[in-house]
Design brief:
Radius of gyration: 21 Å
Oligomer: single chain
Number of helices: 5
Largest sheet: 2 strands, parallel
Strand content: under 5%
């Protein structure tokens, strides 16, 4: 083995969904040697607080994927009651990094960020149809 090869530092390359990159989301548990490939288009949210709200929204949508009775397809996100429920849950989970002083720190507009995140999720997601196989005749 070449001694120069022993001196090389290792780099961790993280692959994440294109939708997460478009929203400006950063993977959890990154280190100094973590490399996230950059997308060709700029992220939708550049402000870290907006990205945090988008991350919460994206996580909530991902949790809904496992509830086919409540969330049969991604187009259900366009319903006003579903968006209102998402906004309420995001508002409950969002915590600012420090106490906010009025006029010093601009609060993120949760309604706009949730709407933009939902729009991106709808654009970048393909619904997979659910197939139910029902036998006809006698089953043995």
């Amino acid at each position: 083995m070449n001694p120069d090869q022993l001196q090389q530092k290792t780099v961790t390359v993280v692959s994440q969904p294109q939708l997460a990159s478009l929203l400006g989301l950063v993977p959890d548990q990154t280190t100094g040697s973590t490399l996230v490939p950059k997308e060709s288009s700029p992220p939708q949210f550049k402000n870290p607080e907006d990205q945090k709200v988008a991350q919460i929204t994206y996580d909530l949508i991902r949790k809904l994927e496992n509830q086919p009775q409540r969330f049969p397809s991604v187009t259900c996100l366009q319903k006003p009651d579903m968006q209102a429920a998402l906004m309420q849950e995001v508002a409950n989970q969002y915590r600012p990094p420090q106490l906010e002083i009025e006029g010093v720190i601009e609060k993120p507009n949760i309604a706009v960020i949730v709407a933009k995140t939902v729009e991106r999720v709808i654009q970048k997601t393909i619904d997979i149809p659910r197939i139910l196989v029902v036998p006809t005749g006698e089953v043995r």
